[in-house]
Design a protein that fits this description.
By secondary structure, the protein is an alpha/beta fold. It has one domain: TIM Barrel, CATH 3.20.20. It contains 15 helices and 11 strands. The strands form 3 sheets. A 6-stranded parallel beta sheet has the order 4-5-7-9-10-11. A 3-stranded parallel beta sheet has the order 1-2-3, with helices on one face. 45% of the residues are buried. The structure holds alpha-D-psicofuranose and manganese (II) ion. Manganese (II) ion binds next to loops.
Length: 424
């Protein structure tokens, strides 16, 4: 299933007038809007290869139909997303769920669809059918050197796949930890994990980065070996200049001030990347922006402020990825909503009047500081995002077009109603 440029243009024609009216109004109110539009055009969010099928809970999953059956079909799905919004120009692979057996053909397919390969993700949190040793009691933290070695070798293999695809980073997320007090010696678990990560780090190509993702719990866990940003930062600092912390929005306890974490990691030059999703309680993997849009904006506000303070390139100096699970909604529609929510928050953060905010802060003018942020948050910036995407060839109403074109129906016809995509 493909969406041609002609189809998209035909769809846009019908909506153009109204868009122009909304955009002209917003542009007349916005300082430096051309500059903002250029930043929005450059900003691309990677889609994970495991998010294109139905997710599920420990109790089961409800099939969506037409799920991609292999990596090629996953790339086709992301190509559809990118054709619709022109802001999803990257894919992030999980190994072994999506091994690129024919890397050069995969690279060509991705390039034809203007997609690049974002961070590679390793998996030592599941046992694979052909695996020699089990990760039941952890992987990089394991008391047995042979298990640690297996986990290290897997990560090095993931890097090799990534090199073939011209990816530039490896994300390591470990579900290592313990289920009961007394089970682990925390210090030894940390040291084993560190030395395992050091061996992987030593195998990183010169221009690569390593991201250490943290998470405070898994159901039934008592401790996690990379539980929070402090621990992740400890590993990253000990590993060296190519290692960074990765923030997954869902990996915090309710009420955590994630924007402050982001600000301090940026200050230390140790923020490497982001996994976007939303949650009410914990790692719910819900559509980003669906629960706490104000928090998302506050996070972007810190991201923009912190990146500008270090002279960083918003589009390329951090790795931006969605990490969500789709249980009820069509994954493609859910991902379109996710990317839109991210672009809206980013656009709002770009609109913040930094000079006035600094003034308010210097004068302890709490009311003005709040006004400055909330005025922006209450501004409907969708025409600005739409204009940026339109200039790159996107549809003005991506979900509307995909429904009109019956995308899911065609995918079911092509692939069948019972297909299951690899992933969680
Ligand atoms: C773990 O919950 C996580 O956030 C990690 O990023 C994994 O790679 C991904 O989800 C797996 O779904
Ligand atoms: Mn994640």
């Amino acid at each position: 299933m493909q969406l041609t440029r002609d189809k998209i243009e035909e769809h846009n024609q019908a909506l153009l007038k109204e868009h122009q009216r909304n955009f002209d109004f917003l542009a007349s109110e916005t300082r430096e809007f051309e500059n903002i539009i250029q930043k929005l055009i450059s900003f691309q969010v990677a889609i994970p290869s495991w998010a294109l099928g139905a997710g599920g809970t420990r109790f089961g999953r409800f099939s969506i139909g037409g799920e991609p059956r292999n990596l090629e079909e996953k790339i086709q799905d992301i190509a559809l997303l990118h054709a619709l919004n022109r802001s999803s120009g990257a894919i992030s692979l999980h190994i072994p769920w999506d091994i690129p057996t024919n890397a050069s053909a995969i690279k060509i397919l991705a390039a034809q669809n203007e997609l690049r390969f974002d961070a590679m993700n390793s998996n030592t949190f599941q046992d694979q059918p052909d695996q020699k040793l089990s990760y039941k009691f952890g992987s990089m933290q394991h008391v047995d050197r042979a298990v640690r070695k297996q986990a290290i070798e897997h990560n090095i293999e993931v890097i090799k796949y990534g090199v073939e695809l011209e990816s530039r980073s490896l994300t390591v997320w470990l579900s290592d930890g313990s289920n009961f007090p007394g089970q682990l010696n925390f210090r030894k678990a940390f040291q084993n994990t560190l030395s395992s990560l050091q061996e992987v780090y030593a195998a990183l190509p010169e221009n690569w980065k390593m991201f250490v993702e943290y998470k405070p719990y898994e159901p039934n866990f008592y401790s996690m070996t990379v539980a929070d940003w402090g621990q992740s930062l400890l590993y990253a600092n000990k590993l060296g200049g190519k290692a960074y912390t990765l923030v997954d929005l869902g990996h915090h306890f309710p009420g955590t001030n994630v924007e402050q974490i982001v600000a301090l990691l940026l200050m230390e030059g140790k923020l490497g990347g982001f996994h976007f999703n939303d949650s009410r309680y914990g790692d719910d993997d819900l559509t980003v922006g669906s629960m706490k849009p104000y928090q998302l904006f506050l996070i972007f506000n810190q991201l923009v402020e912190g990146m500008d303070a270090r002279g960083m390139d918003h589009a390329s100096d951090l790795a931006w990825m969605i990490d969500a699970s789709h249980n009820l909604k069509d994954p493609l529609e859910d991902l379109l909503q996710s990317v839109e929510a991210i672009m809206i928050s980013y656009a709002q953060a770009l609109l913040v009047d930094r000079k006035r905010l600094v003034q308010a802060q210097e004068q302890n003018d709490v009311v003005s500081a709040q006004e400055i942020l909330q005025n922006v948050f209450r501004t409907d910036v969708r025409p600005l995002v739409a204009e940026a995407q339109l200039r790159s060839g996107a549809a003005l109403d991506p979900i509307g077009l995909s429904r009109n074109e019956k995308v899911r129906h065609h995918l079911i016809k092509e692939r069948g109603s019972k297909t299951v995509a690899t992933g969680l």
